[in-house]
Amino acid sequence: MTKHWYFVADIGGTNARFAAFHGARMMETAVYDTKQGDDLLDMARDFTRSAFPEPPVVAVAAAAGPVKDNALQLTNANASLSGDDLGLATGAKQAKIINDFAAAAWSTLAVGPGDISRISGAEVPGPATRLVIGPGTGLGVGVLVCADGAYHSVSGEGGHIGAAPRSRYEVEVFAALRTLWPDIFFGDTLVIEAEGILSGTGLPYLYQAVQNVERTDGPVPDPRGIFEGARNESDPVAIKTIDIFKAHLGQIAGDLALAFGASGGVYLVGGIAMKNPWIFNAPFVTAFTSGGRFTKEREVLPLYLVNEPNFGLIGAYKYVETLAPA
Questions:
Q1: Same domain, 129 and 246
Q2: Is pLDDT above 70 for 257?
Q3: Three-state DSSP string of the chain
Q4: Which domain holds residue 81?
Q5: Is residue 107 part of a domain?
Q6: On the chain, which terminus has fewer CB atoms closer than 10 Å, C or N?
Q7: Residues 215 and 260 in one domain
C-alpha cells in the first residue's frame, strides 16, 4: 500500500462505512453496525492498523449530526466524534469531521452518468448549485453552493423543517400521529418535523397513524415491509402511508430546491431511495413541481436518483481534495 492514502468514513445512525483512497481510487472498504454500541474510534483504529502499515495522510469522517468546532454528536445514534480524537485513532496529521449530507453534496461532483437516473426536469446547465436529499434513519439534506465558479458545501438540519397536512385526510392522520409521537410537533399545531414521516424511524409511526384513521388494527410492519406492501398493493394501509410519504418528500425536495436555486440538480440519495425507485412516479413529480406561481421554475429543476451506494464515501473523498496539504 502506498504511503499516501486517505481514510474516509460515512457514519449514519445505522451503519459506519470506512474506506481507504489512494488518489481518486477507493481501495479497501468495511461496514460496521453503529447500533451495536461499539466505539467508533476503535473501529477506525482497527481499520487503519490492521490493513496498512502507514497511517493515512488525512482522515475525514462524514457523520449524521450538526458539526461544531470539528466535532459532533450523532443525531440518531448514541455516539460522539471529534477531529482530534479521529486523528489520534488513525494517526492522520489532519482530521476533519463533516456532516454526512455535506459529503453527499460533494459526491454529486464525482458521480457519472451511469450512477444517476433522471426523473424529471431540464439537463444540468453546467456549474450551478446542487441539492441532495435522502430519507434513511433520519432525513438528510445537503447543499453544494456554486459561487464564482467554485463550490462550497452548506450543512444544516433541513430534515427538521416543518411539514403540514396537505389534505383533509392528512389532518386526521397528523392528529392521530400526535398521540403516537408528540415530540415531533411544532407546539400546538399540526406541523411536524419532516423527518417524523420521511425516514425509516418515522415511517412505522405514520403507518400506525393511518391505521388509526382507517380504524384497522394488526401488526405494524418495518419500513421495508411497508414499502413492499405498497409496491405489490397487498396492504391498503401501506399504500396510503407511502402515498403520504412520497407526496411530502416531493414537496419538501421542491421547496428546498426553489429556496436554494438548485438549478444544478436535485439528487435523491440513500438506501430507501435506491431500493424503491418506483415511488418516484407521476404523483411524486407533481408534488415536486407544484409551487403556485413558481410551478414553471420548479418544473425545469433537474431531478435525479443516485444509484451509487458509496456516495457518502465518495463525497468525503471529494471533500479531502478541497483541503490544503497536511
A1: yes
A2: yes
A3: CCCCCEEEEEECCCEEEEEEEECCEEEEEEEEEHHHCCCHHHHHHHHHHHHCCCCCCEEEEEECCCCECCEEECCCCCCEEEHHHHHHHHCCCEEEEEEHHHHHHHHCCCCCHHHEEEEECCCCCCCCCEEEEEECCCEEEEEEEEECCEEEEEECCHHHCEECCCCHHHHHHHHHHHHHCHHHECCCCCCEEHHHCCCCCCHHHHHHHHHHHHCCCCCCCCHHHHHHHHHCCCCHHHHHHHHHHHHHHHHHHHHHHHHHCCCCCEEECCHHHHHCHHHCCHHHHHHHHCCHHHHHHHHCCCEEEECCCCHHHHHHHHHHCCCCCC
A4: 6-100+310-320
A5: no
A6: N
A7: yes
